[in-house]
Amino acid sequence: xxxxxxxxxxxxxxxxxxIEAGQRLRMYQAEFPASxxxxxxxxxxxxxxxxxxxxxxxxxTWYERRGRDVSAAALYRRLVEDxxxxxxxxxxxxxxxxxxxxxxxxxxxxxxxER
Length: 115
Known about the structure:
Strand content: under 5%
Oligomer: single chain
Mean pLDDT: 87
Number of strands: 0
Shape: elongated
Largest sheet: none
Low-confidence stretches: none
Radius of gyration: 16 Å
């Protein structure tokens, strides 16, 4: 897991290391739940998801800067669907509203009651 995480150099680079680390971490959680808790697997998964979402947001903004609004909107929407609890998803919702591309409007999800 740590080796896979170390391969990720930043949001502008290939996310394969993050994806592999997330998969391995979920497998580890399923097989060794107590050890995964001691490792802080949930927090690590949150960090991985935030990084993957940031990567997707960067790609979407790249398309937006080049005037490819439909492509940007599709990536923003996918980001919101794949990583709804991330800061990047909130920023993507703002960008989607600003782009106003027909067919790519995403309604914010209602807050989840955690009681």
